[in-house]
Each structure stands twice: as structure tokens, then as C-alpha cells.
Amino acid sequence: MWDQLHRFVFDGLSVRGVFVRLDASLARNLRSHPYPPPLQRLIAEATTAVGLLATTVKIKGRISLQFQSDGPVKLLLAESTDELGLRSVGQWQGDIPEGDFSALMAGGRMALSLLPEQGQQYQGVVPLDGETLADCLEHYFQQSEQLATRILLFNEGERSAGLMIQAMPGLQQHEDFHRIALLAETLKTEEAMNLPVETVLHRLYHEEQVRLFPSQAVRFHCRCSRERCRDSLLTLPVGDLQEMRAEEGETTIQCDFCGERYHFDDQALEQLIQEKQQQAH
């Protein structure tokens, strides 16, 4: 029931839908840092949303959803792989008061990026235009992709759920989408969080012919590794590595997403310095 994503379509209509619930996959993200409660809710929403969005693109790689602002919440970043491996992180400054999305993300921008393993990357950047994170995503799809979209996000602590209704590309029937989206808005938090997906869809769309596809597992997945950290150290000038070794004799890199720590002792730093010097010749 939890950490599962469900895609569905309406037979005879040019409308598709996605429903997802996150539990352990979300909790692992939220426990990586001591996030204030308002930021926890935004991270939960962003993580849920990127899981929904991952089903709308057909690439081998990742989709990234990023929010930056001049408000107390400086950064929200959520990623999903094509196999629904999720990770997310947030950055904030000072105290985070309880407040609406527009106050926490004042002067913000949103970037939606497609990051295929091969081929050209894509990024769309737009100003935040909406009272909620879901509003901003709906506006992005309407303005940038010309796709009518309705997104509903629900959160209870370290669990979340999301429902997305979207007109199919090139086949938009506005009356059908409008009717299906209005029915989606009647979904209550306790229903989204607790009822079986079949019951949710029947409750909303018992007069429609809904075809539910097999569920897909969702999980926490961080791409960090010792090798990636080592590669990042190799981008530093050799002088910086020598100074690091002379002053500290070691260094530790901590992943922003999962909190995993990678330690490089004096011998490891010496090997990096030698490798940099060999590259220079």
C-alpha cells in the first residue's frame, strides 16, 4: 500500500492519472537533517511531486525539481530516477516561521530538469506563480508544456500522498479534463492517506471507466559514493589538496542528501596529490 505508485487512464477520454503514497522512501529523506516542520512539509510535497512527474517522461536517467528563493527557504531539490528512486534535500536560513508557500519562498524560481544518461539535457526555469507548490507545477505545465494538469498533495508527518490528473499531449478535451479534475478535488486527506487505491478511484470516478495499471515500487535512492567524492576532490587545484593535507591531514565529505560521510585520510590525500601531479605532466 505504501511506497507504491499507480498509473491509470480513463477509457474513452484523453486524460491520465497517477497516484502515489510515500512512507519509508520519504522518511529516509526527512531524517537526513533536522528540518524545521514547515520545511519538512515542503520537502514532503516536492518529493511526492517529483515521483508523480517521473511517470510523465520516457527517459533513462533522472528528473529533477528545484526551487530557489530569497525567502527563509533557500532551496528545495527533489530527484527521481526512471526506476522511481527518490532523494531530496532542503536548505534554509534562520528561523522558519509557520506561513504560506509564497512567504517561505519569496521571490522564488522553479527549475524542472530532465537528465538522461545519454543525450541532451533539458531545463525549464520559471518564476514561482502560485499559492502552493502544486499551484506552481500546474502553472508550469499549462504555460510551458500546454498540458492541463491538476496536482493534489497530502502530508502527515513522514508520510505523504499525491494525485495528478493530466490531459494527454495532443489529445486535450477540456470538458473531460475539467470534470475529472473537479472530482479529484473532492479527495480528502484521510482518504488519500488510508484507503486502498482501488477504493480511492472508485470513490472519485465510479461513473467512469478507469483502467489501473500494475503498481510500481518507490524507494529512497541516493547516488552518492566514495568514488564520486574522490572525483570531486580531484577537481581541486593541487595546491588546495596540499594545503588540506598539511593543515588537517585528512578530510571528510558529507552527502547533502543522505548524510553519508566519506573520510579521506592522509594517505588517501597523498594519492590524490600524486594523481593530480601526474595529470599535469
SSE map:
Blueprint: E1 4-10, E2 15-22, H1 24-30, H2 37-54, E3 61-68, E4 73-81, E5 85-92, H3 101-104, E6 109-116, E7 122-127, H4 133-145, E8 149-156, E9 159-167, H5 174-184, H6 189-194, H7 197-205, E10 210-212, E11 216-217, E12 219-220, H8 226-234, H9 238-247, E13 251-254, E14 261-264, H10 266-280
Parallel strand pairs: 5-12
Antiparallel strand pairs: 1-2, 1-10, 1-11, 2-9, 3-4, 3-6, 4-5, 6-7, 8-9, 13-14
Helix pairs in contact: 9-10
Please name the defining characteristics of this protein.
single chain, 281 residues, alpha+beta, Hsp33 domain, CBS domain Like, six-stranded antiparallel sheet, 36% helix, 31% strand, elongated
Characterization of the model:
- It is a single chain.
- The protein has 281 residues and is of the alpha+beta class.
- 36% of the residues lie in helices and 31% in strands.
- It folds into two domains: 4-220, Hsp33 domain; 226-280, CBS domain Like, CATH 3.90.1280.10.
- The chain has helices at residues 24-30, 37-54, 101-104, 133-145, 174-184, 189-194, 197-205, 226-234, 238-247, 266-280; strands at 4-10, 15-22, 61-68, 73-81, 85-92, 109-116, 122-127, 149-156, 159-167, 210-212, 216-217, 219-220, 251-254, 261-264.
- The strands form three sheets. Strands 1, 2, 8, 9, 10 and 11 form a six-stranded antiparallel beta sheet that branches.
- A hairpin with a 4-residue loop joins strand 3 (61-68) and strand 4.
- Helix 9 packs antiparallel against helix 10 (266-280).
- The longest helix has 18 residues, at 37-54.
- The mean pLDDT is 92.
